[in-house]
Amino acid sequence: MSAEGPAIEVDHLTVSYGTQTVLFDVTLTIERGLLVGVIGPNGGGKSTFIKSILGFVKRDVGAVSILGRQAEKAKGLVAYVPQRGAVDWDFPITVGQVAMMGRYGRIPWWRDPGPVDKRIVDEALEMVRMSDFRDRQIGQLSGGQQQRVFMARALAQGAEVLLLDEPFAGVDAATERAILDVLHTAREAGKTLVVVHHDLATAAEYFDRLALIKKRLYAYGPPEAVLQEDLMAQVYEGRLQVFTRMGESRKEDKEACGGHA
Predict the structure, then answer these.
(1) Are 87 and 147 in contact (CB under 8 A)?
(2) Model pTM?
(3) What tens digit of pLDDT does each residue of 120-140 get?
(4) What is the CA radius of gyration of the chain?
(5) Where is the ABC transporter domain positioned along the sequence (predicted)?
């Protein structure tokens, strides 16, 4: 599906839960073909930012467009990979069946998946290196494997924009690297990926751009422009030594960046 415009445009977005404002006046444009990390302290609104783009939470004010279309009219252009904790892993369903769910929005209700759908699912499972597990029940997988299965579902959907909520949470270093490889492969295939991420020590290495959010958008741009010591101290209100691949040391609040938004 082709469309015009930047991958995501957010215009004066404000979101509240009851009387508490979680996001305030966020304006941001994400160009196509980027791997973008959304960083910020616990409770700063990172996951809410993703969910508001998807329409999972109601916006008080503001507009969101995806590839030049209003978000509400962009069905099929964007896919979502939730946090692992939001999924019932005991549900009796296989890896292949989860991946096929990505095709349901493109299959008329009166017919079964066809050869094209099966080929696309095969390609998605191959991309995330889960082809050998297609008949395995999802509850029997490791955390990293589960995460990759839901990435396969998003890829099978055929969406051009993928939003991922903490895909690296709770996985070991080897699995984290495998997931990162999948993200890079998807970007090289022309996808735009926006990833909620809490580990500032790897943010500069992993992402093309960073969006620093704590209720409002403090900065958006290349990692070296966002990971500035004075800005980090302002947002995290503490100090931690963080070493980036750029060879610089930055100080931030370790406790604030170690959990979930």
Answers:
(1) no
(2) 0.86
(3) 999 999 988 999 999 999 999
(4) 18
(5) 8-240
